[in-house]
Prior knowledge:
Structural class: alpha/beta
Strand content: 25-35%
Bound molecules: adenosine-5'-diphosphate, magnesium ion
Number of strands: 10
Amino acid sequence: MTAPLLIARDLRRTFASGGRRVAALDGVSLEIAPGETLGLVGASGCGKSTLARVLTRLVAPEAGSVHFMGADWLKLSGSRLRAARRHMQMVFQEPLAAFNPRATVAGVLADALRIHAVVPKAERGAEIARLVDRVGLPAALAGRSIRNISGGQRQRVAIARAIAVRPRLVILDEAVSALDVSVRGRILDLLVDLQRETGVSYLFVSHDLAVVRAVSHRIAVMDAGRIVEEGPAAEVIAAPSTAVLGRLIDAVPRLKGKPQA
Length: 261
Ligand SMILES: Nc1ncnc2c1ncn2[C@@H]1O[C@H](COP(=O)(O)OP(=O)(O)O)[C@@H](O)[C@H]1O
Ligand SMILES: [Mg+2]
């Protein structure tokens, strides 16, 4: 068996809330294999984004560990951190907040390629054109500014920026939740195709079980800061063992009437 790409152990993080401390992460452990998509599903407020932010080091945990590509990820600093960071990219729900809105599509991609020296400078233009094409955007869009394109196009740019640096893991936090159903379907197909081509792993975070089901090899269900259920996607959905997952399944009419495994 190949070694996991990412191993998180017993992550804890609390936040002050109305004079008390609330555990957003109450001892979370998970593993992601190379080339695998782990879907993380759970109701709003259960701690999914906090987990995504702890894994990407946007939020520091109070306890626990993360090993990524064999290194003690939360303890890395300096040049070793910069080198490893390239391999863990994140895509958010509303990418406008994650971009300089005045930047052009090509500018955003050029920055990513330059910062991590992905290709020689002379090849940067060709690489940008390749990326724009790869995520299904028209070539003419490269010169447009981020604020003058649609939400679906912007999310494709966010994915192009994430894959531009040829990462090992992309963490997607409600990345398609704001998009209409047809745009969402095409972006999910794109993610699956990219995974087949590159062997990238995904941590796919969503409150929507139907979306998670469509792309995940394994599914982990979160509730109140804990992972309460986890397993191969089809098995977990066919035979939910917690009420939390039962409610998420009930919210998806298409999954409801399925025969039990
Ligand atoms: N920066 C923060 N400050 C205070 N409370 C926070 C912060 N981030 C998250 N929380 C709280 O932690 C809990 C989990 O939030 P979050 O991780 O955003 O859940 P989810 O992404 O599953 O909706 C919620 O109770 C939320 O209010
Ligand atoms: Mg969230």
